[in-house]
Amino acid sequence: MATINLLPWREELRAERKKEFIAGLALMVLVAVFVLFVADLVFDSKISFQERRNAYVRQNIAELDEEVAEIRDLRSRRTELLERMRIIQDLQGNRPIIVRIMDQLVRTVPDGLFYTSLVSGDGKIEIEGVAESNNRVSSLMRRLEASDWLQSPNLEGVKAAPSYGDQATTFRLTVSVQLPEQEEEL
Fold first, then answer.
1. Among 3.40.50.150, 3.10.450.50, 3.30.70.2830, 3.90.1640.10, what is the CATH number of 112-185?
2. The sheet that has 169-177: what strands, in order across it?
3. 19-67 pLDDT, tens per residue?
4. Could you tell me which of 130, 108, 128 has the C-alpha nearest to residue 120?
5. pTM of the predicted protein model
6. pLDDT, tens digit, for every residue of 123-154?
7. In DSSP terms, which residues pair with 150 in a beta bridge?
């Protein structure tokens, strides 16, 4: 029988398979590196895209914050202006009232009595004056009570004033300012 030695052929086949395996392995490593490189590029582009979107959102948020601050400032200015307008309207509305009150004070003064001081504040008027007698002070208080604009006179003190006459007295009283009903409805 003929002797055929298959060992060299098997070794060649084994060496060829080993080369194919190493080549396939190298090709797989190259493909894996390429896939990783492409995946890295894709993820980097997505990250940079998201960072641009975040920067855009941050920029718009900053603009909106500025607008909100401006709106707050405008609201506070509006409130201040409305308060000023209300004060001015109150002053304009009260202007004729002061004239009416002064007119009522003049109309209620009886003969033999004069005022030395008038102080107004918080809806009250403090009156100081000199009267010929205590009866004149009583008459003044009755007239103030009967007035449409003044009410609740309160006598705080009466002192003799010999420098003005034998029976002359100085007095001090407070009276409340009360708007007539018809004026309050207007």
1. 3.30.70.2830
2. 113-121, 124-131, 169-177, 150-160
3. 999 999 999 999 999 999 999 999 999 999 999 999 999 999 999 999 9
4. 128
5. 0.49
6. 888 989 998 888 888 888 888 888 888 888 88
7. 177
